[in-house]
Automatic annotation (TrEMBL), chain A:
Record organism: Flexilinea flocculi
CDD domains: ABC_KpsT_Wzt (cd03220), Wzt_C-like (cd10147)
A Pfam family of this chain: ABC_tran
Protein name from the UniProt record: ABC-type polysaccharide/polyol phosphate transport system, ATPase component
Gene3D superfamilies: abc- transporter (atp binding component) like domain (2.70.50.60), P-loop containing nucleotide triphosphate hydrolases (3.40.50.300)
Keyword terms: ATP-binding, Nucleotide-binding, Transport
UniProt-recorded Gene Ontology molecular function terms: ABC-type transporter activity; ATP binding; ATP hydrolysis activity
Cellular component GO terms, alphabetical: membrane
Highest classification ranks of the organism: Bacteria, Bacillati, Chloroflexota, Anaerolineae, Anaerolineales
Top-level taxon of the source organism: Bacteria
Family label: Belongs to the ABC transporter superfamily.
PROSITE patterns recorded: ABC_TRANSPORTER_2
From TrEMBL, chain B:
Localisation per UniProt entry: Cell inner membrane; Cell membrane
Membrane topology, as annotated: Multi-pass membrane protein
Designated name of the protein: Transport permease protein
Keyword Transmembrane: yes
UniProt KW keywords: Cell inner membrane, Cell membrane, Membrane, Transmembrane, Transmembrane helix, Transport
Cellular component, GO, one term: plasma membrane
Domain ABC transmembrane type-2: 52-274
Annotated source species: Flexilinea flocculi
Length: 422, 282
């Protein structure tokens, strides 16, 4: 029988809503109550009215040596789950049994001190992550080589560029070699080359028979690195299945089926301000909102958003992504340099950016639409790689006289000529 | 490939914690390297980008001694138990500043390191503990100045010098105990950050640093005064070092120890109770 390295049973986590305590409490009362009413928590009892369950009745097992993906929308409870499993916070109810040392990459560079040198920070960070001194010394050269900051290793890290800093931080975490590795979206770190290296390191970890718990919004990374995936929705576990099946489920069920998507306030991170995404819609050539469009007709996309303050140099765009996570294209509303001049400053207000994907471009199948609002090299206001899923119907597309699936993501109508030479 | 040192059977059970427990000693011992590195970091960072560096550990008590000698010793003519005032005040200031610095740093240690608390698991008590340990190093840096002063004034310790480590230990226990309370409260109420300087100042005047405890003659007042464990510590430290003692002050030692240990235990209990909420509330 395979050994389970993580057994989670009926875990729930309740958080208090809002900062204001139910009743006014003095410092003195708090002190006294701590000793006289040990059952009573900080601000009195949590009730359904003043709290919510970030996680509810979560149960699953992870076999030793397996890589488990965790997917879900923002606010579905993924990070809370990882925090509980890495013991940062306690569950409100339920229990989990973990066999082996847990290494967490919830945030790389934890405990790094800007005044210390790279080498000193490696020792410190290693100790914080639970490595022995001797273990760190043994791996020092390897860590330094991996981080690619050899020349600066004895310079205080406050003099590092942010890229160097992150590389060094990731290098320490990557060499932790725990039995169970918990990873949350670290792949957003660094340039493409370094990301490739990180992904490589992670698959090494998985190949060495360690257990990996991997939270990501990047479906292709999930498919590549994990065997099984759990899907969380509003704090509940809705599915545990082989990754291909779970990703498919997530992409098709986790989204609205109506051809539009509206962002609720809890789905918008605080750092998006002053950009507020409102909705994204897919329209067919007749101008109706639809989740299924024909490949032989133009596809119209509308992205509606508000600016609470004027933003200079804003570009709003879309990604088109396959269900396996491959990017097909990225396009911004001010890609045209004249339009960029015209909209160099966008005032406060509500906007709709529209674009059209030409007819006879996409192959049949399901596609994921992502959105991005950013200023070049300054700030990424908002970013959602899975804003919406839509279907493309291939009826009448080139080559449909043969009832066979065509490989490839696009299916352009090319102008062929046949010249008979004889 | 590297071998994993940890035994195969390390099992961790995660569940809501219940009941009363003072401190998980086994876990703390397992974290000794982390304690060492955090202490080392505190020390390493403290005097970075300062011109005088570690000399500050000496300058602080010496400057205070000068100020006290001018105002309390010189102008106010505060009685100093027959000891030259500068030596008298410095011998009190060293254990006091160990106490005060430990208390200040350790009380803020959780909030200062909040990014660690929200990101990673480790026994939280490591933070106040390593802050206190780092202050001990500062204390020993300043000791040669005291020795120099003793030579200058021709004071030599007697056999009761052997009690000094014990007084240092009591200072650490007391400051850690109080800091455990404050640091855990600091997570909830950032007021603590503003309160601590006042408490330290008040506490110093309730401890015989600038004056001799002989000034308090009313027996009722004396009893209340002695509830402050630092009274016994400072008196004891000064007397044993300067060779004033002729007998071991058993009564004062026992009294101070009991109160210090009570403070430490209550601090550990409170800290332990609040610990699980740190990551959610900080």
């Amino acid at each position: 029988m395979p050994q389970n390295s993580v057994i989670v049973s009926h875990i729930g986590k309740r958080y208090r809503i809002g900062a204001a305590p139910a009743s006014y409490r003095t410092f003195r009362e708090t002190l006294i109550d701590t000793f006289t009413k040990p059952k009573k928590r900080l601000h009195g009892k949590m009730t359904d009215a003043n709290s919510f369950w970030a996680l509810k009745d979560i149960s699953f097992n992870v076999e030793k040596g397996m890589a488990l993906g965790i997917v879900g929308r923002n606010g579905a409870g993924k990070s809370t789950l990882l925090k509980i499993l890495s013991r940062v916070t306690e569950p409100t109810v339920g229990s989990a049994t973990i066999s082996g040392r847990v290494g967490s990459l919830l945030e790389v560079g934890t405990g790094f001190h800007p005044e210390l040198t790279g080498r000193e920070n490696i020792y410190l960070n290693g100790a914080i992550l639970g490595m022995k001194h001797e273990e760190i010394s043994r791996k020092m050269d390897e860590i330094i080589a991996f981080s690619e900051v050899e020349e600066f290793i004895d310079t205080p890290v406050k003099r590092y560029s942010s890229g160097m800093y992150l590389r060094l931080a990731f290098a320490v975490s990557a060499h932790l070699e725990p039995e169970i590795l918990v990873i949350d979206e670290v792949l957003a770190v660094g340039d493409a080359e370094f990301q490739r290296k990180c992904l490589g390191k992670m698959s090494d970890v998985a190949d060495q028979g360690r257990t990996v718990l991997f939270v990501s919004h990047n479906m292709s990374a999930i498919l590549r690195l994990t065997q099984e995936t759990i899907v969380l929705e509003k704090g509940k576990l809705v599915m545990q299945a082989p990754s291909a099946e779970a990703v498919d489920y997530y992409l098709s069920h986790g989204f609205s089926q109506e051809g539009f998507r509206v962002w609720t306030p809890d789905e918008i991170p605080a750092e998006a301000a002053p950009f507020v995404p409102v909705a994204i819609r897919i329209l067919n050539d007749q101008g109706n909102i639809s989740d299924t469009v024909r490949s032989t007709q133009p596809i119209h996309i509308e992205f509606e958003y508000q600016l609470e303050e004027a933003i200079t140099g804003l570009r709003v765009g879309i990604y088109l992504i396959s269900v396996r996570g491959e990017f097909i294209f990225t396009s911004f509303d001010v890609d045209d340099s004249e339009r960029f001049e015209e909209f160099s400053v966008r005032d406060k207000g509500t906007y709709i950016s529209r674009c059209t994907i030409p007819a006879d471009f996409l192959n049949e199948g399901r596609f994921v639409l992502g959105v991005n609002a950013s200023t070049f090299k300054i700030k990424r206001y908002f970013h959602d790689e899975q804003a919406l899923v839509f279907h493309v119907d291939g009826t009448g597309a080139p080559g449909t006289q043969w009832p066979e699936p065509r490989t490839g993501l696009i299916r352009p109508r090319l102008s062929w000529e046949i010249e008979a030479k004889n | 490939m590297n071998v994993i040192n940890e035994p195969e059977t390390t099992k961790t059970i995660i569940q809501p914690s219940q009941g009363w427990k003072i401190v998980d000693l086994k876990e703390l011992i397992r974290s000794r390297e982390l304690i060492f590195f955090m202490t080392w970091r505190d020390l390493k960072v403290r005097y970075k980008q300062t011109v005088l560096g570690v000399a500050w550990a000496i300058i602080q008590p010496v400057m205070t001694m000068v100020v006290f000698s001018i105002f309390f010793g010189g102008l106010a003519r505060v009685p100093s138990d027959g000891i030259p005032y500068p030596l008298f005040s410095l011998a009190g200031l060293l254990p006091w500043q160990l106490f005060e610095n430990s208390l200040r740093n350790a009380s803020r240690s959780l909030v200062t390191n909040r990014n660690m608390i929200t990101k990673i698991y480790f026994p939280r008590v490591v933070l106040p503990l390593s802050s206190v340990l780092a202050c001990i190093v500062d204390f020993f840096v300043a000791v040669p100045i005291l020795i120099f002063m003793m030579i200058y004034y021709h004071y030599s310790p007697n056999i009761y010098l052997l009690l000094i480590p014990f007084y240092i230990l009591l200072t650490i226990i007391t400051s850690l105990g109080v800091a455990l309370w404050f640091s855990a409260m600091d997570v909830l109420y950032r007021d603590i950050g503003y309160i601590i300087p006042f408490i330290c100042q008040l506490w110093m005047y309730l401890t015989p640093i600038a004056y001799g405890s002989g000034m308090i003659s009313n027996p009722k007042l004396q009893f209340i005064y002695n509830l402050n464990p630092m009274v016994g510590v400072v008196n004891g430290f000064r007397s044993s070092l300067l060779g004033v003692y002729n007998t071991v002050p058993i009564q004062s030692i026992v009294f101070s120890s009991v109160i210090s240990i009570l403070i430490l235990i209550s601090g550990l209990v409170y800290f332990r109770r609040m610990e699980k909420q740190f990551a959610d509330l900080i």
